[in-house]
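Regression test attached.
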Amino acid sequence: MAFTGNFMCTSFKQELLEGVHDFQSGGNTFKLALYDNNASFTAATTAYTATNEVGDSGTYSAGGGALTNVNPTTSSTTAFTDFDDLSFTSATITARGALIYNDTAVGDPSVVVLDFGSDKTATSGTFTIVFPTADASNAIIRIA
Amino acid sequence: MFEIKVEAPLDAFEVHTTENRGHTPEEVAELCVNRLISIGDNSHPALQAQARAFRDRMLAVVTQYIKMGIEQDRATISSELSKAGYQEIANQLRRL
């Protein structure tokens, strides 16, 4: 049981066609939850789970932190969306990966699995997840 | 007939952590500028050099204004503490 890489959840692709997710600012609330390396997420992951989630510390609490949606936009023929960077402060956390999920939709459906590659630790400090540049080549979620 | 490719460049995200402190203004400025300016590896070398020079200038400006924002916020909090009778804490905050 361990993180085995980054995945876009297959169920998320289906749910895009079903109109489950609204990434607009003021739309659905997406959250990012942190996990230890006992978690075993893959592309087959379908929803948030509290199993193997890191404990409450500082501003981190069960369920993770709410992401700030950046309105989807387009560049040439590619549409993309983005989130603001997320920080948990005054926290002592060791996490190996994260799950982004839709906290508004029924059943907390998952979006992407992030594998940090190794344990990342903040000790009485700040734990920040930095998203890539929001453009047609780098944005966190793109439809080309 | 039509294919829509849903992509996530999942290797592009980063995790930054600190020990017994928050991020410094310089670190926050770096995060900010990296989000604002992306320099493509395939761009013409002259354009890359120009973009890097612009990025460095932006880094200095953003750092300066983050520091200014922190100073102003501390001044406001210090003033509120002072008004509430916590003069010693207000003075310590001002000296940080």
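Expected vs. actual: identical. Residues 45-83 of chain B form the longest helix (39 residues).
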